[in-house]
Amino acid sequence: MMKDLPQTVYVVDDDDAVRDSLRLLLKSAGLACEVSGAAQEFLASYDPAQPGCLVLDVRMPGMSGLEMQHELNLRGATLPVIFITGHGDIPMAVEAMQHGAFDFLQKPFRDQELLDRVQRALIRDTENRVRLRHTDRIKERLATLSPREREVLDLVTQGKANKMVAGDLGVSQRTVEIHRAHVMQKMEAGSLAELVRMMMAVAPRP
Amino acid sequence: MAGSNDKDGAAHDGTTQRARIIIVAGQSSQRTREVLYTLRGFTNVIWPPSLEATRAQTGSKDVACLVIADDLHEEPIDEFLQEARGLQRNLPIFVITDPDDVAEAVSAMRHGATAVIEIPPSYAALREEVARAIQ
């Protein structure tokens, strides 16, 4: 099993004093921390494989925090983002949350408030990565199926009995049974229910 | 007369109803109530008298969206949001909240709100959100 990399809390804020105080705070809590003064600087060195979370200022010269969030979304990043701002309003907070922000915190905030949110964001990141690894494994198994096995899989996970699948595909019931056995083996599924759960896990979300 | 509505705007003549909105009234201000009621010209509005009635309505399939007004009969909005989200996973839910209460807005978003609208809600903003939701 792949060993997890240590988590890092990234801080992106154009204010030197805020960056320094956040670095001290996070380090005092035993958290690894990397700071950047601009969105572009962070994006240039961002490695999606690196687990952690991001503490991001909303208003920065050049690329704003919301624009940077958009860019991260385009890159398919799953890093939980905690926005911090001294000038937050409801439309801004709603926009950030609608685009997947983990949290939105107004300055000034208590140290513990931020640390609590960071801890929760790190837990969320771990959960996200476990889920992603799980769906990646399912996708790898799906890729090993033949086109006919994939058709059988789709039909049986729609709840169709072997006889109905045979009718739909114009093959014998015995052939369906053989394909189905191969599907169960290749997908490493112990039951139809488990197979359905696997397909739900990789289905596009609405 | 075809398509007649009762005093709450609900069609009851057996014809196909337009998508409905449920509004949780609570202790909303007069201004909020006025703005919410103007939506009746746009789609049907039901304003259940209690949270129990609201829960029952929210589970219905012909609900288009849910608008939670500023004071939810003194019940925590976040809990009700989660409950409503549990009743209908993809139901658009709008929360009307105090102006500048960013923390409450963020909390509502985290608990399943589709969007948060500040008091006093403008008719245009609310109509735009609702139109997008029921399309």
What's this, in brief?
Chain A has 9 helices and 5 strands. Chain A has 206 residues and is an alpha/beta fold.
Helix content of chain B: 25-40%
Q: What count of helical segments of chain B does DSSP give? A: 5
How many domains make up the coordinates of chain A? Answer: 2
- Per DSSP E runs of 2 or more residues, the count of β-strands of chain A stands at 5
First and last CA, distance of chain A: 31 Å
| Structural Rg of chain A | 23 Å
Task: Write the CATH architecture name of the largest domain in chain A.
Answer: 3-Layer(aba) Sandwich
Beta strand count of chain B: 5
**Quaternary status:** heterodimer
User: Taking all residues together, what is the mean pLDDT of chain A?
Assistant: 93
Main interface pair?
A-B, 11 and 15 residues
The portion of residues assigned to helices of chain A is 55-70%
Q: By CATH's scheme, which homologous superfamily of the largest domain in chain A applies?
A: Response regulator
- Assign an overall shape of chain A: elongated
| Proportion of residues in β-strands of chain A | 5-15%
Total of DSSP H or I helical runs spanning 4+ residues of chain A: 9
Features of the shown structure:
heterodimer; A: 206 residues; alpha/beta; Rossmann fold; Arc Repressor Mutant, subunit A; 5-stranded parallel beta sheet; B: 135 residues; 5 helices; 5 strands; disordered N terminus
